[in-house]
Amino acid sequence: MHLLETLRIFAETDRQVSFFSCKNMNEEVNKIIEVMVQQIMNHVPDYGDFSPILEFFVNPDSRTSKFVGKYGLKVYKMPKDIVADPRIRYIEAAAYIPSGIYKSDCTVASGTKDEIIATMQTPEFAEKLQETFLQLAELFEHYD
């Protein structure tokens, strides 16, 4: 889905979509995790459906900013016909080209609300997320 279409849908559902910027990638990753954990605590129920939550940050790395404009995290629930358990949530990491039209993404965690919060609060998660963002960026390195 096109980023502008996603933002329009979230605007219509009164869901907050945040953009923020820090000084370096490590700070950005730690900040997006902190913000996302708060969003999950406040907006994701333990059971059932909810609107996906998106958080973004502008790519602070001048070496990769020509082919990756921003990074994002998304928390969502799969449809019931794909995953029947109404407690399971997924965290997706994504890198977007500067125009925002295309992205590369992957699932970085899944579990119940409490499990994903606990996972996101470990130092290992921040390290792995930063590695994942850089791997996703590499997919766009030769994109024209």
Features:
24% strand, 144 residues, alpha+beta
Radius of gyration: 15 Å
User: Into which percent range does the helicity of residues fall?
Assistant: 25-40%
Biggest sheet statistics: 5 strands, mixed
Which strands sit side by side, in order, in the main sheet? 1-2-3-4-5
Question: Count of DSSP E strands?
Answer: 5
How many helical elements?
Answer: 4
Can you walk me through this structure?
The longest helix is centred in the first third of the chain and has 19 residues, at 25-43. 37% of the residues lie in helices and 24% in strands. Strands 1-2-3-4-5 form a five-stranded mixed beta sheet. Strand 1 (17-20), helix 2 (25-43) and strand 2 (53-58) form a beta-alpha-beta unit. Helix 2 crosses helix 4. It contains four helices and five strands; from the N terminus they run H-E-H-E-E-E-E-H-H. The protein is globular. The relative contact order is 0.17. It has helices spanning 3-12, 25-43, 113-120, 123-138; strands at 17-20, 53-58, 70-76, 89-96, 103-111. By secondary structure, the chain is an alpha+beta fold.
Show the helix and strand layout.
Layout: H1 3-12, E1 17-20, H2 25-43, E2 53-58, E3 70-76, E4 89-96, E5 103-111, H3 113-120, H4 123-138
Parallel strand pairs: 1-2
Antiparallel strand pairs: 2-3, 3-4, 4-5
Give a brief rundown of this model.
The protein is of the alpha+beta class and 144 residues long.
